[in-house]
Description:
Elements: E1 2-8, E2 11-17, E3 22-24, E4 27-29, E5 32-38, E6 40-56, E7 59-62, E8 68-73, E9 80-81, E10 86-90, H1 93-128, H2 134-167, E11 169-171, E12 176-178, E13 188-189, E14 198-201, E15 206-213, H3 217-226, E16 230-234, E17 243-250, E18 260-267, E19 279-296, E20 301-303, E21 306-312, E22 318-322, E23 324-329, E24 332-337, E25 344-348, E26 359-362, E27 378-379, E28 382-383
Parallel strand pairs: 5-26
Antiparallel strand pairs: 1-2, 2-3, 3-4, 5-25, 6-15, 6-19, 7-14, 8-10, 8-13, 9-12, 10-11, 12-14, 15-18, 16-17, 16-19, 17-18, 19-24, 20-21, 21-22, 21-25, 23-24, 27-28
Amino acid sequence: MAAVVLIAGGYGFVRWTSGASTVRAGRVLPPAPVTVARVTTADVPVRLRVVGTVQPVETVAIKSRVDGQIVKVHFAEGQMVKKGDLLFSIDPRPFEWQLRQAEANLARDRALLAKARADLERIQPLWQRGVAPKQTYDAAVAGVNSLLATIQAGQATTEQIKLQIEFAAIRAPIDGKTGAVLINAGNLVKANDTGALVVINQLRPIDVTFAIPERHVEALRTARQAGPVAVNVTRPDEPTPFATGKLIFVNNAIDAATGTIQLKARYENTDGNLVPGRFVGVQVTLAVRRNALVVPSESVQVGQRGRYVFVVKADRTVEQRMVRDGISEGGRTVIESGLKLGETVVTDGQLRLFPGIKVTPRPPATRGGARPGPAVRKTGGSSLAKDDH
């Protein structure tokens, strides 16, 4: 039997330990109920957690390319549209009138060209026999060439007006979701005006941009050499990822002002949960620790000398063991040193433990079930708390 003097709250307590029970201040303490777990090995992903912003792959501000009056809007605000869908109709009648006039002028010039060619065919043999002067022949050739150039200009004008008629029907250039209609039917618009008619954002796929500290650039480069880098996104209030994408872009320079480098990941976004402008949590998997020693994260406690765990020995007494912990992932913490594979650690009930106390292990709580907490025995109006060592 060993005696240890403990000082707690200004009062002195004497603890005697024996093979049967623990005695404190002359009273026998029953074994403390605790929840335990084994030290195991697992493959633990090394993830970097930052905050990112959702951005559309493409954003198009729809503007008119011709002057005119909008006669109809063919979509509803917030509607998903496909490339080529009709969005706005501008009154095409002024362009149709211009087209008819241009086509009439073109027909006139073609008729004049036919006459000029006929005149040239009559004058050419006369000039060759010396009957007609060369000046008359040259004038006939110039008239034909001039009308050919006029017809080419008329054809270009006709094609330009046809293009304006085509521009009067404004169509979606990309697949995406429309925003608010900024100009309604009945309003006059000008070509390439500063204001947009509507903005379309591509949502499927969609990108998330984020930045990571420069100290992780080397690890990221190594991860990219091994294969595609997975990037998970989470909601601010939930640690569980709700979408997984792939890293598609790493900027070519580090921002000297912030010491970070810009990255971009792409997501299919079939469910539409990623909305442009939304802030999300980003988890970048840089590597995987193979066969690492792990314990439940709740078993690691923090004391005055650092981090420690309570280890349950073969005689069901506990030992306070200092450890050096590593990364935590999925409720598990990697132990770099201080524990061995197969040892038993306390995951719940540490409040009333101290080195040498007897414990009664109990199974962990099942999902959906409540696990009763350890009872706290009060002495003289004060509860017995865990000793810090």
